[in-house]
Design goal:
single chain; alpha/beta; 10 helices; about 40% helix; about 15% strand; globular; binds 9-methylguanine; folate biosynthesis; DHP_synth-like
């Protein structure tokens, strides 16, 4: 059974529907807020911080539940960002948004960024490396933030070169179980954890499809809420043949598929459209 609530810093979200039918639970919408280098800081009209703040305001108007701030690209082939640059991009934005009324998640695997983000007011840490670092686990254990523990094979630089599994679902479950057990042993409460199969992180299209078909199994096995992120990813492009700027419809279909499999958090770029799609799906499903 899933924990009754997902505890996320200053916020608490119910994880179970009233009638206990898991497909009826409205998923939380996590909006993606990437902060890029400040190309206008020397005299331009808007800085990248201003752009990011107005993007966050738009997402709030559109019905977002959690805002996920990221400073480092996690695309296949992306190289790591130096620590000081990531801190410079992310931390001012956490301070700027901390009182926006929505939980602020920070997408990072660096313990130093986690620590500063928590001090600045972040409510959740989203770690694509699944809290592999013992320093990261120490920082987290000392806090009350919610966590997303994600599966990845290798690292963003190399992950799509030759993904390989004997049984992708079983291996992802085993990996997430081990990482969650480590976090629980270091003192993290179970109701602060969410898990993520890591679509596109060291997976072929076939692996991604198999994982999408098995979200409910993954959630039931680990008794933890699943976060699913497929928005605009290569897997959507591979299925639809569309370039990244034309993948919204495909991304909505994938989000609804994840929701029908019981996913509790959907990580998306297009918040307004996903909120509408979820509303329609629920209105029909509830009758
Ligand atoms: C940062 N990031 C990019 N894609 C992601 C995904 O699918 N899940 C999570 N948790 N984070 C992601």
């Amino acid at each position: 059974m899933l924990p009754t609530f997902f505890e996320c810093g200053r916020f608490r979200f119910p994880m179970k529907p009233v009638n206990n039918a898991s497909t009826m639970c409205k998923p939380l919408i996590m909006g993606i807020l990437n902060i890029t280098p400040d190309s206008f800081s020397d005299g331009g009209k808007f800085s990248s911080l201003d752009h990011a703040i107005s993007h966050a305001e738009q997402m709030i108007e559109d019905g977002v539940d959690i805002i996920d701030i990221g400073g480092e690209s996690t695309r296949p082939g992306a190289v790591a960002l130096p620590l000081d640059e990531e801190l410079k991009r992310v931390i001012p934005l956490v301070y700027a948004l901390r009182d926006c009324g929505k939980p602020i998640s920070v997408d990072t695997y660096k313990p130093e960024v986690m620590r500063e983000a928590i001090i600045a007011g972040a409510d959740m840490i989203n770690d694509i490396r699944g809290f592999a670092s013992s320093q990261a686990r120490e920082v987290i254990a000392d806090s009350d933030v919610g966590l997303c523990v994600m599966h990845m094979q290798q690292s963003p630089e190399t992950m799509q070169q030759r993904p390989s599994y004997a049984n992708v679902t079983a291996e992802v479950i085993a990996f997430l179980r081990e990482r969650c057990d480590q976090l629980l042993s270091s003192g993290v409460e179970k109701n602060r954890l969410s898990i993520d199969p890591g679509f596109g992180f060291g997976k072929t299209l076939e692996h991604n499809i198999e994982l999408l078909q098995h979200i409910r199994l993954i959630q039931d096995e680990l008794e933890l809420p699943v976060l699913a992120g497929m928005s605009r990813k290569t897997m959507i492009g591979a299925i639809t043949g569309k370039p990244v700027e034309r993948r919204m419809a495909g991304s909505l279909a994938a989000a609804l598929m994840a929701m029908s499999q019981g996913a509790r958090i959907l990580r998306v770029h297009d918040v307004a459209e996903t909120v509408d799609a979820v509303r329609v799906w629920q209105a029909v499903n509830a009758t």
